């Protein structure tokens, strides 16, 4: 036994020395500082615990640009916000498609669309986003989403006298996931009638459970863990794919134009049926993974901030009180755009919760010149990473960066803005809402950094009931005694009235 233990230690030692030789890297002239770490794994443990803290600490120690190893790959982080544009201009030296396609193929299991036989056809597929997510097609998609949101809200509408309690994250996810899924992928014809609602809820609950099981393993999958080692996530992904096979989708009604045209394009490319379905799983994840936490944070900060809540509620009432009570809510593009208070709230919530990383792959050796004039040599095959959250939480850019400021205009755009705005509008219109835990500020889950909008680290309880005064002017309410002129532009402020929760 002792001999075997000695042999094991020797083998481990040899492997360690070999790894130091094979995976060690020496900094070349003009290259960014190299952060020391473990062989192959690099600084993955320090980064994984707190990405923002690690990057801030490394920035203080090494400057605005530095390189570190993560799971065998070298990432050069550019932390100077004024140099982000310099990186984005390096189109001929930095390749986004190679990284994104390899990442997507490994996690979702679809075919390699960069292969010579498919790359040209896939460019046509990619162009469908521009054709179906702007102008009149986007307006139609937004209107369909609004209708599906109203259906989802009505599924468990409580009475005016009875308070219901539910986790805010559960509440948000349940409504947004159903509405978003049906908007993209439609409904089965037999479940369109009211008597089919129970079946819809059961089917949707299973899809949502599979989505969360797959999404929960996403950080591990992104770090390089094979999905075959994450059995629950693999089973969930395959279950989602099974429900999105083309033979299943052909039995659904009201499928979005985007998905229908993607289906037609993939059929012409002669992919196998499972690979087609896995591309739809990828689309499902892309449409939900950021939208769900973004909707959560938007409602959370609305309810936590009395000033934001008051003016948001007034804005919603002014728009919807003009509409007929006996018909589903239908909003024009102009009406959606006029809700500037809701938009401001959403943008600020996104600033506080977004943690996406923009990554490119160096297609050749080249010299990157930063805004400061500093030159950095970049190696072919290395990854260049930009982390905008460093800007969003910079006190030199945003005073008190961890505080919610509902008049902030820090966000540059978000594809799901209409969805979240409609969700907030309907939540404030249908319900009296109260958070039962207001003493502590909820923090985002830092382990999800790099994938977009961070989910909450835990759920909070929400109390809600049907609004008794919906559709009537709220002239009998006691006004909140607070000066909002310094928080909101004068053109956006309406006289707020207190929303009584008892």
UniProtKB/TrEMBL annotation:
GO cellular component entries: endoplasmic reticulum membrane
Main location: endoplasmic reticulum
The entry's keywords: Endoplasmic reticulum, Heme, Iron, Lipid metabolism, Membrane, Metal-binding, Oxidoreductase, Signal, Steroid metabolism
Pathway as given in its UniProt record: Lipid metabolism; bile acid biosynthesis
Entry's localization field: Endoplasmic reticulum membrane
Residue sites binding substrate per the record: 106, 290
GO BP annotation list: bile acid biosynthetic process; cholesterol homeostasis
Family: Belongs to the cytochrome P450 family.
Protein name, entry field: Uncharacterized protein
Species annotation: Ameiurus melas
